[in-house]
Design goal:
Structural class: alpha/beta
Strand order of the largest sheet: 4-3-5-6-7-8-9-13
Strand content: 15-25%
Largest sheet: 8 strands, mixed
Helix content: 25-40%
CATH class of the largest domain: Alpha Beta
Distance between the termini: 61 Å
CATH topology of the largest domain: Rossmann fold
Length: 440
């Protein structure tokens, strides 16, 4: 066994039977802790009539109620201790750091951590970074300010624990960040997929070829869905290995790619992942079928996260990874269930637009999708910026994109070419889908 490819060779190659026994024990412990220390969970489990001793097998886990972000929000709203309310699972004076969710789907959720829980999150991120090939020799540039959002703080602390050199890049504009990457010869980046593409665009505007002129060789992306065509496009534009990961502020980082890039490994020593049917969230789906990710974070005592409905649409892989890790794989996440919407009666996933554009239209620099309802009929508009040579029409690109989207989704799109630099650029989570039908 090549132990150098694992941060923890024992846990990462644990036989499945032993891994599942570990998960069962840790699930029961997490449930017992939440029941004893968090008023929210104590109330839920009492009303459901469930107790840790009822969980004898992993199948019994489905007897435990699901928890949603809205449940956690309501448990924090106007409750003591402020601002964590009935969610909090530790004494308030043990909380050493606070973060919050992005608030893209409602009021932000406040996420407390103790010193111990924060160290465990950093340890889990070490599994992620090491599995992607980051090592002590790497100098990692973080090209934005993290603020109160958790993901890149965890990546920062884990990179330090790994022995990497970390260079924060907040309080700079994109051009200054490109100059700094070149100046310090950074070998790694952590950013959203959108901002990775934006930095490459700015570099070219500066006359810098990221592949030829910048030493970046590894990039970790987080913060928003990254379809495989987008990941491949980032690799093409940077000449670097680009890796995906998935996590949530309330649960932590729970799955990530390794150097094989055959999907994302679930960090199963630390999490129990269930992939449940899209309609009822009551039954597990088979590998290869889409479902909703429900996660239990064994170590989240300050904010217990047990059978938490992430609303991420994922698919369990049907294959094993050649890297030798025994944890299950998921395919590239397909966005969120609460981002799916019906257009003229058909279910539409905005990620399909990005998959189509990044997979076959390198001349499109930026895009935005708008759902509208003129004359009481749903309509989809895609605005695109096209990098056409001077004097060359972009009509062909617009026509081919409309045809490609029709084949991909079964829906009709109107495509509008807009002038360069018209559409917004994003550093953190991109908001490329606008549904203005409710305002029509």
């Amino acid at each position: 066994m090549d132990t150098d490819r694992y941060w923890n060779p024992i846990l990462e190659t644990l036989p499945r039977d032993r891994l599942e026994k570990l998960q069962l024990r840790r699930f029961r412990e997490a449930m017992a802790w939440a029941m004893d220390h968090s008023p929210l969970y104590a109330r839920m489990y009492r009303e459901a009539g469930v107790h840790p001793e009822h969980i004898v097998t992993l199948d019994d886990v489905r007897r435990v109620p699901l928890v949603s972000k809205e449940d956690l929000r309501l448990a924090q709203q106007d409750k003591q201790p402020f601002p964590y309310g009935d969610v909090l699972g530790v004494p308030p004076d043990e909380v050493s750091v606070m973060h919050q969710t992005a608030g893209t789907t409602g009021k932000p959720l406040y996420v407390p951590d103790t010193y111990e829980s924060w160290q465990e999150l950093a340890e889990m991120w070490c599994y992620i970074l090491y599995g992607m090939g980051f090592r002590r020799r790497d100098r990692i540039f973080m090209p934005f300010g993290y603020g109160i959002y958790i993901a890149y703080w965890m990546g920062h602390y884990a990179a330090e624990k790994l022995g990497c050199e970390v260079v924060p890049g907040g309080s700079m504009d994109a051009r200054a960040r490109i100059s700094k990457i070149a100046e310090i010869r950074a070998t790694g980046l952590m950013n959203t997929p959108t901002y990775g593409l934006r930095l490459a665009e700015v570099a070219r505007e500066m006359g810098i070829d990221p592949v030829r002129d910048l030493p970046v060789r590894k990039m970790l992306c987080a913060g928003e869905p990254m379809p495989e065509p987008t990941r491949v496009e980032l690799e093409r534009q940077w000449g670097a290995d680009v890796y995906d990961h998935i996590g949530a502020a309330e649960a932590g980082a729970w799955a990530a790619m390794c150097t094989e890039k055959h999907g994302l490994h679930v960090l199963e020593p630390f999490y129990l992942l269930e992939v449940l049917d899209l309609e009822t969230l009551s039954q597990p789906v088979a590998p290869g079928e889409k479902g909703i990710a429900v996660i239990t974070a064994f170590g989240r005592r300050s904010i217990p996260c047990i059978r938490y409905n992430l609303k991420d649409v994922v698919t369990l892989s049907q294959r094993d990874c050649p890297c030798g890790r025994t944890s299950r794989l998921i395919e590239t996440p397909r966005g969120r269930a609460d981002h799916l919407t019906k257009i003229s009666g058909a279910l539409f996933n905005p990620v399909a637009v990005e998959e189509t554009i990044r997979g076959g239209f390198p001349e499109i620099a930026e895009f935005e999708t708008v759902a509208d309802r003129p004359a009481n009929q749903d309509e989809l508009l895609v605005k695109i910026e096209v990098k056409s040579p001077p004097g060359q029409s972009s009509d062909g690109t617009a026509r081919r994109l409309a045809e490609g989207l029709k084949l991909k989704t079964g829906l009709t799109f109107r495509v509008e070419v807009v002038p360069a630099q018209t559409l917004p650029r994003y550093e953190l989570k991109a908001a490329r889908f606008k549904d203005i039908r409710r305002h029509a």
